[in-house]
Amino acid sequence: MYDVLILGGGPAGLTAGIYAARGGLKTAIIELGMPGGQAASTEKIENYPGFAQGVGGYELMNAFHQQCLTFGVGFIFEEAQQLDLSGAVKKITTDVKSYEAKTVIIAAGSKPRPLGVPGEDVFRGRGVSYCATCDGAFFRDKKVIVVGGGDAALEEGAYLTRFAAEVTIVHRRKGFRAAQIAIDRAQQNEKIRFELDAVIEEVLGKDKVEGVRIRNVVTNATRELPADGVFVYVGTEPNAQFKHEGLDVDERGYIKTDNLLRTNMAGVYAAGDIRTTPLRQVATAVGDGALAAVQVEKYLAE
After folding, report:
1. 99 and 8 within one domain
2. Does residue 241 share a domain with residue 100?
């Protein structure tokens, strides 16, 4: 019996673990993969306070992980499959066994949203990728396409120019959602070109990616662009593949909380990217994790 089980080992979950364990609670984090979540696969994080020159995502998340271990947080590297949250005792069933706790913090994060076009699934891992830092080195001296108009698309596009001969950013509008500094860097990079007011309709190839078919949303004209790789950054969707009856979620599947991160179920909290929130950043995830853990302490005390 744990005082709190935390589902997810990204920045929100790791921070919650630090605060909960430091507060004297018997704490464990259930995480399928490497601690750190999406942040750990980010090549460089420039907007996390305290690092004037930026910090590597893996480096920062490894420090979070080590701090958890220092305070005695347990780690359960299994896949959560079902949450039973309605009773006073909460139960999380994984692919291995079941665990019980007095409270649960759901911090499972989010994952890249797919484009949903023909050829994407066929060539996943054979030219279609969602992580430039994971796969960028495979495209040395090749042509790649980056899809999206936010910070991730422009920053990872710039990162890919370390390897690729040419990076084409395809975005459905003329304007970008990214921070101005990311836009400026991309526009000033000689290896980056832009296809604006355009969407990808199909990923083309035989055994691997050989190009894409794009459509101009203004003229409806289509044409093919040769490419060796396609990197997709068109937003995220919640990591909520586990069953969770009775938990309130929004139309996209993100968990609803109040301003104290309480869900509609007593003793159950949500933190970080998996909850309905206007901003999904490492800094906001850290704040969520701290607040959720403090609320758990108060709930247990009462």
Report:
1. yes
2. yes
For 96, other C-beta atoms within 10 Å of its C-beta total 11
The alpha carbon of 152 is separated from its chain's Cα centroid by a whole number of angstroms, namely 11
Tell me, yes or no, whether 102 and 155 share the same domain: no
The pLDDT tens digits of the residues spanning 20-40 come to: 999 999 999 999 988 999 898
In a domain, 45, yes or no: yes
pTM here is 0.83
Question: Is the domain of 256 the same as that of 204?
Answer: no
Question: Which residues are identified as catalytic?
Answer: 131, 134-135
212, 232, 252: which is the final residue of a domain? 232
In contact, 145 and 212? CB cutoff 8 Å: yes
3-state secondary structure 181-213: HHHHHHHHCCCEEEEECEEEEEEEECCCEEEEE
**Burial level of 168, CB count in 10 A (0-12/13-18/19+)?**
buried
What pLDDT does 96 receive? 96
